[in-house]
Amino acid sequence: MGLDNVNPTVYSVPKDAYGQSARSRLWRMSQNSDLSDTETETQAQTEAIDAGEVFDLIRNINDPEHPLTLEQLHVAQLRHITVDHENSRISVVFTPTIPHCSMATLIGLCIRVQLLRCLPARFKVDINVEEGTHQSEKSVNKQLNDKERVAAAMENSHLVEVVNQCLATTIDKIAAY
Amino acid sequence: MDSNKCTTLSGHTDRVWQAQWHPTRLSLVSCSGDRSVRVWNVKMESANDQSPVASILDAHKRTVRAVAFSPAGDLITSAGFDGATAIWEHVGDGEYECVATLEGHENEVKCVAWSSSGSLLATCSRDKSVWVWESLGDGDFECIGVLHEHSQDVKQVVWHPSAEVLVSASYDDTMKIWREKDDDWYCSDTLTGHSSTVWSVDFDTSGVYLVSVSDDKSIKIWQNKNINDGFSLFSCVATLENAHSRAIYSVSWSKTHGKIATCGGDNAIKIFSFDPASNVITPVHEIPAAHGVFDVNCVRWCPLEQSGSLLASSGDDSQVKVWELQRVCA
């Protein structure tokens, strides 16, 4: 199968790529299972999470087609993440490199899985394609925000393997820092 | 101060997708992402954290998305993401035995529902189809209709409370009404109006009204004045926009007191009344954070006349809860 975008634009990445925030969260992840995250939070007051911390979690996700990160391809950008701390809502908008990118749903799924695994359960996360950047924008968005479709996808072992490959480098890079 | 009396049923180890009442006893059956089906006896007077009286572990190879007791209460059906629908019979001592497996859907089965007489079963799937099965007794089922008119994922199937009329709700934003004529099942009506996935529907006790809830956060009421006439169509008579602040996943219309319960991705359970004289949907009660910070996936009113104020809910926190809402239902 040929690549959708054989020659994507690569953007430079600032040196201090992996912040304190992501490291502390990963440390917490290793201490607590998904469900006990919430209990930990109520005990030690709810911790504020900002857009920078969310960006730290997804910036190094590997593109499924290129040995490049979502940050390097400007698929994920800090300015496209909003956090409503009070209502525990997070919105992530991502930008496919080309409007007919067949990988858009997979990229969105990687972002969703990464945030499901790393963020406290109280956060409700909406993931959408940047308006006007994909020809199937509506259907990609609908699928990514349907919890039943996401749950079924996560029981598909082939898909889980592909997602884990895209996420593998993220964990390595943050952990090695 | 939380005035909602509630008992918690703990045992599942993953998101609970559904909990359904037994037709004649104070029992529930639930299903989960942990692939199990569990049966509970509900005792409102006892302390929290009641455990199941029966567990069918590994009921399916993947998530069990939906369950239902048969109208006679002797069988349990379960629908799984493994594409199968299973029929379970109680063989005593908290043990259930699989007496039939209905195969045919290409992928995830999302819902299973018995007709009121118990002679028909309907299933629906991500493969966009709705299947109607006839129960021939002794665990024999025959597929009598494969209905292909939805253009997407079918989320739920619900039978009319008395007539052999089926409604399906879909990811294609519509609902379809299915009827049988001369041994052929056909779509007699398509209900459009929601702007996103229709997650759940339910009839009122008369079967004249239908309520639907959607990813578009609205509740709609539909009316069909002559359900027994195959040419009679449903029309939308009421809409409540922004009934919840996120997707609404489930709706239950009480057959004993007429209140409508909904729940969704905003963690809340809400109770509404519908006035057919003015066609107005009015909020009457809210349980915020019903399952803590987690989504509430399903609500079901108890069908028993003397216990109609009990509402079962299930959530992403792996728990089933039963709420006593006597004050609300009076």
TrEMBL record, chain A:
<feature type="domain" description="MIP18 family-like">
    <location>
        <begin position="53"/>
        <end position="128"/>
    </location>
</feature>
<protein>
    <recommendedName>
        <fullName>MIP18 family-like domain-containing protein</fullName>
    </recommendedName>
</protein>
<dbReference type="GO" id="GO:0051604">
    <property type="term" value="P:protein maturation"/>
</dbReference>
<dbReference type="InterPro" id="IPR002744">
    <property type="entry name" value="MIP18-like"/>
</dbReference>
<dbReference type="Pfam" id="PF01883">
    <property type="entry name" value="FeS_assembly_P"/>
</dbReference>
<comment type="similarity">
    <text>Belongs to the MIP18 family.</text>
</comment>
<dbReference type="GO" id="GO:0007059">
    <property type="term" value="P:chromosome segregation"/>
</dbReference>
<dbReference type="GO" id="GO:1990229">
    <property type="term" value="C:iron-sulfur cluster assembly complex"/>
</dbReference>
<keyword id="KW-0159">Chromosome partition</keyword>
<dbReference type="GO" id="GO:0140535">
    <property type="term" value="C:intracellular protein-containing complex"/>
</dbReference>
<dbReference type="InterPro" id="IPR039796">
    <property type="entry name" value="MIP18"/>
</dbReference>
<dbReference type="InterPro" id="IPR034904">
    <property type="entry name" value="FSCA_dom_sf"/>
</dbReference>
UniProtKB/TrEMBL annotation, chain B:
<keyword id="KW-0853">WD repeat</keyword>
<dbReference type="InterPro" id="IPR036322">
    <property type="entry name" value="WD40_repeat_dom_sf"/>
</dbReference>
<feature type="repeat" description="WD">
    <location>
        <begin position="147"/>
        <end position="178"/>
    </location>
</feature>
<feature type="repeat" description="WD">
    <location>
        <begin position="57"/>
        <end position="89"/>
    </location>
</feature>
<dbReference type="GO" id="GO:0097361">
    <property type="term" value="C:cytosolic [4Fe-4S] assembly targeting complex"/>
</dbReference>
<comment type="similarity">
    <text>Belongs to the WD repeat CIA1 family.</text>
</comment>
<feature type="repeat" description="WD">
    <location>
        <begin position="9"/>
        <end position="50"/>
    </location>
</feature>
<feature type="repeat" description="WD">
    <location>
        <begin position="241"/>
        <end position="282"/>
    </location>
</feature>
<dbReference type="InterPro" id="IPR028608">
    <property type="entry name" value="CIAO1/Cia1"/>
</dbReference>
<dbReference type="InterPro" id="IPR015943">
    <property type="entry name" value="WD40/YVTN_repeat-like_dom_sf"/>
</dbReference>
<comment type="function">
    <text>Essential component of the cytosolic iron-sulfur (Fe/S) protein assembly machinery. Required for the maturation of extramitochondrial Fe/S proteins.</text>
</comment>
<dbReference type="InterPro" id="IPR020472">
    <property type="entry name" value="WD40_PAC1"/>
</dbReference>
<dbReference type="InterPro" id="IPR001680">
    <property type="entry name" value="WD40_rpt"/>
</dbReference>
<protein>
    <recommendedName>
        <fullName>Probable cytosolic iron-sulfur protein assembly protein 1</fullName>
    </recommendedName>
</protein>
<feature type="repeat" description="WD">
    <location>
        <begin position="102"/>
        <end position="134"/>
    </location>
</feature>
<dbReference type="Pfam" id="PF00400">
    <property type="entry name" value="WD40"/>
</dbReference>
<feature type="repeat" description="WD">
    <location>
        <begin position="191"/>
        <end position="223"/>
    </location>
</feature>
<keyword id="KW-0677">Repeat</keyword>
<dbReference type="InterPro" id="IPR019775">
    <property type="entry name" value="WD40_repeat_CS"/>
</dbReference>
<feature type="repeat" description="WD">
    <location>
        <begin position="307"/>
        <end position="330"/>
    </location>
</feature>
<dbReference type="GO" id="GO:0016226">
    <property type="term" value="P:iron-sulfur cluster assembly"/>
</dbReference>
